[in-house]
Amino acid sequence: MSSSSKPNLPVTNAVNGPPNADLVRERGAASFPVRDLTYLVYGGQERTEHLERIANMVASDPVFRKTDRFFLSRTEQYRRSLEKVRHYKELIAKHNLHSELDQQDLRQAIDEDLPIGLHVGMFIPTIVGQGTDEQQKKWLPLARAYKIIGTYAQTELGHGSFIRGLETVATYDKSTQEFVLNSPTLTATKWWPGALGKTSTHCVVFARLVISDRECGVHPFMVQLRSLENHEPLKGITVGDIGPKFAYETMDNGFLRFDHVRIPRDHMLMRFAQVAADGTYSTPPHSKVSYATMVFMRAYIIGTASSTLAKAVTIAVRYSCVRKQFPLRSGEPEQQILNYQNQQAALFPLLATAYAFHFTGNYIRQMYSDFVRGMRAQDFSVLPEMHATSAGLKSLTTWIASAGIETCRASCGGHGYSKLSGLPSLYANYIPACTYEGDNTVMCFQLARYLLKLYGKAQAKPGLRLPGNVSYLEKSTLLDERCDASTEELWLDPARQLHAYRNRALRLVANCANRLVAEMQKGKDEVLAVEAIKSDMVKVAKAHSYYVVLNNFVNAIEQLRASGTSTPILRVLKTLCDLFALHFIQADLGDFLEYGYLSSLHTEPLHAQIRRLLEAIRPDAVALVDAFNFTDHALGSALGVHNGRVYETLFEWAQQEPLNKTQVAPGYHEYIKPFLLAKM
Ligand SMILES: CCCCCCCC/C=C\CCCCCCCCCCC/C=C/C(=O)SCCNC(=O)CCNC(=O)[C@H](O)C(C)(C)COP(=O)(O)OP(=O)(O)OC[C@H]1O[C@@H](n2cnc3c(N)ncnc32)[C@H](O)[C@@H]1OP(=O)(O)O
Ligand SMILES: Cc1cc2nc3c(=O)[nH]c(=O)nc-3n(C[C@H](O)[C@H](O)[C@H](O)COP(=O)(O)OP(=O)(O)OC[C@H]3O[C@@H](n4cnc5c(N)ncnc54)[C@H](O)[C@@H]3O)c2cc1C
């Protein structure tokens, strides 16, 4: 064989050999029935088995392969994701997966940021939410059959967060009953929308409506961008890809400019605001109703924080079980790194958080359905609560999940830095969730503003009843109460845990409110006074959101207990809930100590209880990540493979590296050989 054409490496088929003995042993020693916990997470046996059928179908289909993704160029990755989209459509037809839920399950199993994500996640929901019945009748069948592909084009080069600052204009021309879309400045260029660059034929554009020189605010318009015959951009439209990003290579985030593009009057989505033929403008019933798709997506993102973090933790826990470093004493076998307390302290709180966020996802889904039901009956009263709660939870969950993935990566040592661990790409593709659908900090201001308002109302009107999650704002006497968890046992009391979180949230809200008043007393108007408390507002929003997450976890366990869930499952969930509660007090201890809510009388038993919880979780750690039930395809990680054959898999996957295609390095003749062979 020619030494330069083939690698001199053993061809292994070792990835499929017998499973790692440590993993087998740990799985055999779980204290609870793993399968039952899986059913609990996914909504029952039938649903779990359905999801498994879809996941296995995807995992065994070569079109959906992921293992070579790191060796593809950006263009190849984009093409590959289009191939996956085509195949996704073929599978829907072949297996009769026509329901929304089946298609969602299939996309979830494919597990890639496909360039139809925005079509499904924002374009169609915006038509459903903002279109009139006629508009829905016209566009929904086309969109659902993928006869048109759309996206959500709101953000511009110059503005993302400040929606009222958008510059794209839609001027109504009464004489032709058309809107004229225009990008008057460079900064008016739409910039970032997913799938806008190369894939979409249509989009919903957010533009400022102008009628006879009157500004009517930002509204959504349906615009065709490309020919349905040959995909060329239509006249007056400049569109393309925004170029390389941190990751997200499969997605053609795009730019878009309009040069006086005309669209018919009925292309403004007019469910809530209308422009009549003569130019008469009817205002929407709520000024922010056109922002509803963002609220929907924020709720969706909260739900995905759990599964994303769960993937990272699955990889890190399985690997930490297989990986061994150092004997404790010489002559003894080396320890699994998962036995080290520091490794447990890094990973188990994240494991607990993945379960906590699962229940937060259920909660926000329910809240969102109630909100939609109200909206259909023209009741917008829940909108402020829905907006504020989802804004805060979106921020907290994405921040924690992002940082958590990085913690998992670092806890896998050197192999965590290999892309083959799956963790770098999980991280890089996930972190924009802290920015898109509302920059997290900006979203925190929304929740803090809402809490400050309610607190002010409750102060002004004693006896006022506030909605469930914020009802603690009524009780200013809570501020005088102190923690009484002076033993390890007392720290396991959910009422005491919740008391601590409520007290911290109320104290931060009250402090913020007092500071606001103080700033105004110094002579600032309200706007400038708010500017002076902004970093505290972020803390307020996080504190409240932590409370909401914990409250839901505690309530969920109570409901499971009431519905007869078995003791071993309840026990392990309670341990996770305790660890979640205590870990995040420990992480923000300063907040609790600063105002004397806690003292060293309480912190010692707190730390001791956390150590006990880590020990309690250790024997179940593998079973707890197994219960998430990810296929190897979904994890895409040599370190997280279910059979634990980590080293075999790493070795085999590395053989695909293009540099290994030849024995002699490309560039050797030009750059290495000359100095190696140069005369001394
Ligand atoms: C529900 C779960 C269901 C699960 C079902 C699953 C089905 C899933 C199906 C499909 C999924 C497909 C998968 C898709 C995968 C895609 C991957 C993700 C891709 C990411 C795509 C990203 C897209 C984007 O980023 S789109 C652009 C997003 N942009 C933003 O978010 C901008 C952020 N800025 C704002 O939201 C606002 O401008 C603002 C809130 C910061 C301020 O607004 P402004 O107009 O300036 O208002 P202001 O004067 O400050 O406030 C006035 C009052 O209005 C209140 N308010 C503001 N916004 C809202 C709102 N949205 N709702 C209600 N009220 C609002 C504000 O609080 C003020 O109230 P006040 O009482 O006067 O104080
Ligand atoms: C991967 C990705 C996909 C995206 N997909 C889409 C899409 O499909 N459609 C779409 O329309 N958009 C999309 N976006 C755009 C996204 O929604 C915006 O980037 C996001 O809303 C943040 O807005 P911005 O970029 O204007 O940030 P900025 O608002 O400029 O934020 C920059 C910094 O300023 C701070 N800041 C901003 N305002 C204030 C304030 N009032 N007070 C204090 N601090 C402030 C922020 O906290 C942040 O730290 C996408 C973005 C990314 C990264």
Automatic annotation (TrEMBL):
Residues 493-676 form the Acyl-CoA oxidase C-terminal domain. Residues 1-15 have a biased composition (Polar residues). It is found in: Peroxisome. The keyword Ribonucleoprotein does not apply. Pfam families: ACOX, ACOX_C_alpha1, Acyl-CoA_ox_N. GO terms for molecular function: acyl-CoA oxidase activity; FAD binding; fatty acid binding. The active site is at E437 (proton acceptor). Residues 1-21 are annotated as: Disordered. Residues 34-149 form the Acyl-coenzyme A oxidase N-terminal domain. The keyword NAD does not apply. FAD binds at T155, G194. Gene3D superfamilies: Acyl-CoA dehydrogenase/oxidase, N-terminal domain, Butyryl-CoA Dehydrogenase, subunit A, domain 2, Butyryl-CoA Dehydrogenase, subunit A, domain 3. Its main location: other. GO terms for biological process: fatty acid beta-oxidation using acyl-CoA oxidase; lipid homeostasis. Keywords: FAD, Fatty acid metabolism, Flavoprotein, Lipid metabolism, Oxidoreductase, Peroxisome. Residues 291-452 form the Acyl-CoA oxidase C-alpha1 domain. Its cofactor is FAD. One of its GO terms (cellular component) is peroxisome. Belongs to the acyl-CoA oxidase family. This is Acyl-coenzyme A oxidase. It comes from Capsaspora owczarzaki (strain ATCC 30864).
